[in-house]
What does this fold into?
Amino acid sequence: MKANLLYISPDLNYACGVSKHVYINLKNLSRYSDYKLFFITNKGDSLDRLKNISKLNYSIFDFEKDHKNLFRLTKDFFHLLLYCKKYKIDIIHTHHRYPELLSVLVSKFTAVKTITTVHSFVHGLKTLSFRSDKIITVSKAVEEHLYKNYPHAKGRCKNIYNCIDESYYKPGEIDTHELKKSLGYTDSNKIILFVGRISRIKGVDTLINAFIKINRTNEHIKLILLGQVEDINILGAIKGFEKQILVIQPTENISVFYEVSDIVVLPSRIDPFPYVMLEAGAKKKPFIGGNTGGIAEFIEDGVCGLLIEPGDSDKLADKIIFLINNPAQSELIANALYEKVKQECDGVQYFERLHNIYKQLRD
It folds into this structure.
C-alpha cells in the first residue's frame, strides 16, 4: 500500500541548500510507486519549479521557520492536524525545527510517524527539538554537534550525505562564450564563482577582501557573487569594483554559472555540508572552502580541494592565484572532487537508504 508522505519546509528559494535538498528529494520520490507525495511550504522565489514534479500535492501555509507565540503555535498545530487527517498522512518529513515540533505534536494525536533532516548547527530549545522518530544528519559534523547538544537524539540518528541533481553531471548546452559576453566578460577572463547567501557566515567578506588584493595586479580575474543578499553592509566593500564583481540574484538556471567559472569558492565560517561543494565537483571545477564543519570533513586539502582558515583573506588570495597559475594541478583537484562526489553522494544509494528509513517507520 502506498504511504502518504508529507514534506514540510519553509522558504523555498533557489540559492538555499535546504530548498535544493527538498526539491531533489521530492522530484526523485515522485518516481517511486510507493508514495503519494504532499508538500507544505510558505513562500520562496522557486515555487514555480514545483510544477515540474509530477503527482505532487502542494499547499501554501502561512507559517515561518519558528514561532515563540503560543497562540500562533496552537493555530499552526490545529491547521496541520486537520491537514493530516484530511489526507490520511502516514509520514511527515520536516527540515526545520518549528515544523518538526508541529509534526511531533500531531503524532501524539494520530498514527503519523515523524522524521526530520538536520541541515545545520543549531542551539537551544533542547526539550522541544529533535523528538522525531527518525533523524537524518547531512554530515558527521552535524551528527556530532547533535549528540553533544541534544544527547536525547542518540539512537535515532542516521548520517547520509546529500546527493545532487543528476543534471549537474551532464555537459552544459549553453554557449559559454555568449554567456561570458552577456556578463561583460571575455574568454580571456578568469572567473571566480561564489554561490549562496551573501553573508558573513558564508565568508563573503573574506572573499571580497581576497579578490580586491588579487585584482590590483590581475585585472583579468573577475568575481561573481550569486545569491540573496543577507548582509547589505558586506557589499559596501565592492564600491569601486563594480565592473570586476558582479552580484546576481539567484534564478532557476544556477548551474550555467558553474559552466563559465574557473574556480568555485565558499570560504564559510560555519557550514554543515554545502551543496555548492558537491555541485563544483559534479561540474569538475576546483573548489576552495573554509576549514570548517562538513567542508573540512569532505575535502582533503590539496587532494580534492583546498582549505583556508575562516577569515584568512591573505591565504585565500594565495590559493586562488595558485589554482589559476597551475592549471594542471587545478584539473587534478577538480577531477578528484568529481570522483569523490560521484562515489559518496550517489543518488541511487541515497534514495535506497531513504526508502529503507521510511519503510522502517511504517513496519
The CA atoms of residues 130 and 153 lie 6 Å apart. The chain has a mean pLDDT of 94. The chain has twelve helices and 13 strands.
